[in-house]
Amino acid sequence: MITRTFTAALLASALATPAFAQNGGSTPDVAAELAAMRARIAQLESEVAALKAGGAAPPAVAATPASGAPVQAAAPADAPSWKGAPEFAGGNGFSFKPKGLVQFDAGYVGTPGPELNGTVGGLNYGNLGWNTRARRLVLGAQGKLPGGFGYNVEFNFAQGQIDYEDIVLTWQRPKSPLLVTIGNLYPFSSLESMTSSRLTSFLERASLTDAFNYNRRLGVGLTWADPENDRYTLSAGLFSQEINNSAFNRTGWQASARATFSPEVGDTRLHLGANFQHRVAQQDAQNVRYRSRPLTQLTDQRFIDTGAIAADGDDILGLELAAISGPFHFAAEGQQLWVRGFRPGESFGPNNGVEGGLFYSGDPRFRSAYGEIGYFFTGESRGYKGGRWDRTKVSNPVDRGGWGALQANLRVDWVDLGDRVGGASLLAPDFVNGGRQLGYQASLIWNPTDYLRFMAQYGRAHHQGGPRAATVVPGSAEPVNERGFDVDSVGVRAQVDF
């Protein structure tokens, strides 16, 4: 192979040498051209010898014009390619690509209820109103290692502290359907949680992710996927606690499973999925707690909150449905959570306890669901790959004279953290007054290029019941679990990732 390439290079170089002059040509010109050719042949021979020693294929050879100045040669095989950032690949199975994500948020979160004694709703809220924050400042790297191994490392520096994103080691043979992932990763829990925060339709994932405490954990995951047509995924994993958990000898654990099927029906790509989680609480803190913000993390206030519940853990079952048809997309998910609670009078062994969790006369059940639709005014289709949303390719980016991609989205989001587990009382141990939240959201997303994003969002969250309903709506004749109030929010984001 190297000999044939070398011969072709010599022919190309010879053909590039201009013909000797037939009329009026001078002998010194001929001698100069022959000298240039001999020098070029010597150079090519040394390059081929070096390539043989390294075992790599020779690069394309550029012809030498009559002037003797070499033409720019093609970039070598290991020159970096660009996928939002330079990706360096060697000939021995190694690759390296720096990566990052920057999200700056700003917005306003309203206050519920009337003003009472100088405070809104009878409460002195510390972080409502206008706010700005660096939502994510992620830096890391990813790449491949010989033998089908790979790595991905991400650290989040937002809020002046270091947090851990995906930190994983992977293994997958070429064209193999089996992917093994070890490290700090999201358990296989839902379409929303498995989709990167770079690519969501709104500033935050659906409320089920916040309310049901989905977060990355240390563990191992196995995924069996369709390597050719991307039609199905089967995933299962076993996980311990979060990577920064300090209870080394009494950590809880979680088992997760998820399956997706994505056939094409005409011009429409469907997504059907189901997921299941079995979670066990830490032995020295056997309690669970569920709560959610009002559709935005521009505030840390939660108006729906179960408080701590004495429990061994919980089980969650979820269903997923989505579709992509040209510029339209649709998505919906629903989950039900069953708490495995302890009854009043339960005794615990040494070093075990519930850390202040309340005991209930039954096992509470909580629910959450959302549905959304979206449309690209500029004709793109939402990206999809491997059972999750993927990056959308901008058809006419601004650097090529276009307007970028413009998308609008609408969502309805519902969480119910109230449950009657016993008699008629609205207090523990018969009733969990966590409250209900029904949210309406609209967002507008502009992608000037594949790796830039600007978002604007409006949300209105209606709350019923919950731990603050009696204070926010003190004069109502309705039962405390039926008293309602609303919270409005607006937010904008500037984002770049690579």
UniProtKB/TrEMBL annotation:
Signal sequence bounds: 1-21
Presence of the UniProt keyword rRNA processing in the record: no
Domain of life: Bacteria
Keywords: Signal
Protein name: Porin
Taxonomic classification: Bacteria, Pseudomonadati, Pseudomonadota, Alphaproteobacteria, Sphingomonadales
